[in-house]
Amino acid sequence: MAQDKNTAAQEAARKALEAAQAKKAKKKVEHTYTQVGQQSASKEELLAATRKNALPYRIGAIILWILAIVCEVLAILVFVHKIEFSFTVENPGYTIAWIVLLVLDLAFVIIGSQLWKKANHLDPASAKNKLRFWLHNNLGVIIAIIAFAPFIIIVLLDKNASKQSKIIAVVVAVVALAIGGLTSVDWNPISQEEMLENANIDTVYWTASGTVFHAYDDCSHLNNTLELMTGTATTAIENGKTRLCKTCEARAAREAEESLVSVVSDKMDQETAPSESEGGSQE
Ligand SMILES: [Zn+2]
C-alpha cells in the first residue's frame, strides 16, 4: 500500500514536470525554413527587380484613377443636365445619379491610391529631393483633388441649379474629397536610400504574407508563423519585403551598441597593458 502511494506520488510529480516542460517548449516556435536564392547581383539589377514588382500596381492605380475622373466628368454632366438618363428627369433620380457617380469616383480614388502606396513600398522612390519624394508618395492626394475640386467649382458656378441641390452637392463632394485625400496619404513612406541601407544583411527571414524582413528568426512578430523564408536581404527585397522590421532594427542597434561598449572596454584594457609592436601586426 505504502509503495503504491509512493509510485502514485512519483507519477503525479512526473506528469507535472512533463506538463511544465511542454508549456516551456510551446513558447519557443519551431520554424521551418525555405532557403530562397538571390537573383540580382548589382544595385541596378535590384532596382530593376523592384520596379518590375511595382509595375502591375502602378498600372492598376492609373487605370482606377482614370475611371475616377471619368465618373467625375459624368457627375458634372448629370448635374448641369448635359446628360439626362430617363430617371434623371425627375429631381430625386437626378440627385441619385450624380451621388452614385461621386461614390464610384471616391471608390476608384481610394482603391487606386492603395495600389499606388503598395507600389511605392515595393519600389521606393529616392528621398534626395524632399518635394518630389512627397509628391511621388502622395500622388493619390493630388488625384483626389483633381477628382472632386472641378465638380465643386462647377456646382458653385452653376446658375440653373436650385440652392438646395447646390448645397447637397458641395457638401457631398467636400466630404468625398476629404475621405479620398486622407486615405491617399502615405503616413509611413519608405525611401530608396532606406531600403538600400539594409540590403547588405547576409541572412534575414520573412513570411509569405508580410511586408518586412527580419534580422532575427526569434523576433516576436514571427511567433505566429511556422514557415519562414530565408535568404539575403537583397533576396527579401526582390520578393517584395523592402523594409527591415522595426523591432529587429531596434534590437540590432542595441546589440551593436553593447558590442561597441565591449570593444571600447577591451581597447582600454589593451591600452593600459604594455603596447605591442605596431609594425608587426600589419604583416
Ligand atoms: Zn522582426
Written description of the protein model:
The protein is mainly α. It has two domains: 43-192, no CATH class; 198-260, no CATH class. 66% of the residues lie in helices and 6% in strands. The strands form two sheets. It has a three-stranded mixed sheet with strand order 1-4-2. It has a two-stranded parallel ribbon with strand order 3-5. The longest helix has 37 residues, at 43-79. The radius of gyration is 30 Å and the shape is elongated. Residues 275-283 have low confidence and may be disordered.
Give the H and E element order: HEHHHHHHEEEHEHH
What is the percentage of strand-forming residues?
5-15%
Structural domain tally: 2
Distance between the termini: 79 Å
Counting DSSP E segments of at least 2 residues, the number of strands comes to 5
Could you say which overall geometry the principal axes of the C-alpha atoms support?
elongated
Q: What is the share of helical residues?
A: 55-70%
* Structure classification: mainly alpha
Radius of gyration: 30 Å
User: What small molecules does this complex bind?
Assistant: zinc ion
Number of helices: 10
User: Spans with pLDDT under 50 lasting ≥5 residues?
Assistant: 275-283
Average pLDDT across residues? 87
Task: Enumerate the strands of the largest sheet in spatial order, edge to edge or round the barrel.
Answer: 1-4-2
> What is the makeup of the main sheet?
3 strands, mixed
